Amino acid sequence: MRTAYSVETVRAAERDLMARLPEGALMRRAAAGLAAACADLLGRGYGRVYGSRVVLLVGSGDNGGDALYAGAGLARRGAGVTAVLLTPERAHAAGLAALRRAGGRTVEITDADADADADLGTDAGTAAVAAVRRADLVMDGIVGIGGTGGLRPEAVPLAEAAERSGATVVAVDLPSGVDADTGEVRGTALRADLTVTFGTHKPGLLVDPAREYAGSVRLVGIGLDLPAEPELEALQHADVARLLPVPGAESDKYRRGVVGIAAGSARYPGAAVLAVAGALRGGAGAVRYAGPAARDVIARFPETLVSDRGPKHAGRVQAWVVGPGIGDDAGPVAEVLVADVPVLIDADGLRLADASAVRARRAPTLMTPHAGEAAALLGVEREEVEAGRLAAARELAGRYGATVLLKGSTTLVAGPGAGDGGGNEDGKGNGNGNGTAVRVNPTGTSWLATAGSGDVLSGLAGSLLAAGLSARDAGSVAAYLHGLAGRHAADGAPVGAHDVAEAVPGAWRDVMRG
Ligand SMILES: NC(=O)C1=CN([C@@H]2O[C@H](COP(=O)(O)OP(=O)(O)OC[C@H]3O[C@@H](n4cnc5c(N)ncnc54)[C@H](O)[C@@H]3O)[C@@H](O)[C@H]2O)[C@@H](O)CC1
Ligand SMILES: Nc1ncnc2c1ncn2[C@@H]1O[C@H](COP(=O)(O)OP(=O)(O)O)[C@@H](O)[C@H]1O
Ligand SMILES: [K+]
């Protein structure tokens, strides 16, 4: 499991550790890891550290201190190091002294440079931008977990020059300008090829849009003692393998779970077929389809138990999926919401579900909106959900007392207690899941942005619910398999949703093999 902790938690853990260590030891530990990562990159890209050109962008806090110490380390190994001090009077004094002792140079950006014009077109500004353009490696120590808002205007031309130069850009702890706790990018932020982060991942490194700015992320341990419950967690193969339902000698189709699918309409029969396609690969022992597309479903999947009457006339199931392609018929949604089994609500079902009926449910509910559907439920613009995915998922989960899987470039799964900062996620004791951490899916690919792939996901997650997984586990395991299946199926070329469904067993095997 990969985990991320909030800034508040990181700060508390750092305070505890610093109290037990000599002055400055923690920063030197972080800087040593940072210098090693940079030396590694220079060795690979440029051939060696000796003679390479390194530029440090240095802000006013300890993030700049990390960069200065790491720069000193590289200078001692023969790199030509130039530190651009964005607030010279507040640059980390001991770090700066260490850099100067090691032979590093500085360029000082003064208020006059910053005020000169937007292009930093003064002597110092021009020298700084020119140094960045010539660099082999640029280290971003402008701001770390102490940052608020986007880059200040004087840092923007330097960040742009770094992005356009051939240099490898390494962010210290976080790319400057992104929000560490939320993954939001409200102004300009620096784009890194690599982020070297200290002690733990921060939520912003795992959630878009900030995640995009971080490039690949390397974690340097500094000995922090962190609490058991993180803010965010990302499943990995071994975690998923432990959660996948595997039949044993005692199993029969009913014990493995029956999943009911209430999806599709005369207008959208394909949604029913795709949801069933996902459900058949999700580990339930049988798939029951109830709705107007029964003939289409049976023609494609003869193993499905079909009925063209509503869900309430269908036989017993252990979980329902309702919504994909049902159009405007609220009947099936109301019927499944009163069932005392887990229910997954997707697509049209999200619009048609009565909020109070969802909140009144005692069995788990898993809602699976994309950003547009989430925005409609929250009464905000889609862009607002995309900019603040974590907040949107938590807000929806809280409002509906449900587990929410917010689809998109980083799919999130938030339980109903995910916003209350502690306690049991499953406030109603209804098996929505254990733990408050929001799950973030690491396997997605943008090739999944293809019509119908969400229907496959809802069938897959519903099947896992029927097999007995909690809403949080079913949602996050389904997103993981679906993302992996998307990657396998696409392999760098466009795919259709049915290809994704067909690739799920391969993804499952891949996970089981470790
Ligand atoms: N506290 C510790 O023990 C450790 C901290 N470490 C480093 O210290 C960092 C945190 O240091 P600080 O608390 O000094 O905070 P930062 O270095 O992140 O930022 C400090 C200052 O930057 C200014 N600032 C805020 N937003 C800005 C923006 N958008 N643009 C420009 N300036 C802005 C503010 O004046 C703020 O006080 C971590 O991210 C990490 O890199 C590491 O050395 C590991 C140990
Ligand atoms: N940019 C993206 N990167 C990764 N995954 C994406 C991206 N855009 C969409 N997806 C995934 O593709 C699927 C699309 O689902 P959805 O929006 O419901 O489409 P549909 O309604 O056509 O089935 C979801 O699993 C979603 O997470
Ligand atoms: K930084």
Automatic annotation (TrEMBL):
Gene: nnrD
Keyword presence, Endoplasmic reticulum: no
EC number: 4.2.1.136, 5.1.99.6
Listed name of the protein: Bifunctional NAD(P)H-hydrate repair enzyme
Species in which this protein is naturally found: Streptomyces pratens
Family, per entry: In the N-terminal section; belongs to the NnrE/AIBP family. Belongs to the NnrE/AIBP family.
Binding residues annotated for K(+), in chain numbering: 63, 140, 176
Residue segments, region Disordered: 415-436
CDD domains from the UniProt entry: YXKO-related
Cofactor dependency: K(+); Mg(2+)
Its biological purpose: Catalyzes the dehydration of the S-form of NAD(P)HX at the expense of ADP, which is converted to AMP. Together with NAD(P)HX epimerase, which catalyzes the epimerization of the S- and R-forms, the enzyme allows the repair of both epimers of NAD(P)HX, a damaged form of NAD(P)H that is a result of enzymatic or heat-dependent hydration.
Domain YjeF N-terminal: 10-230
MF (Gene Ontology): NAD(P)HX epimerase activity
Binding site for AMP: 407-411, 454
Domain YjeF C-terminal: residue ranges: 236-511
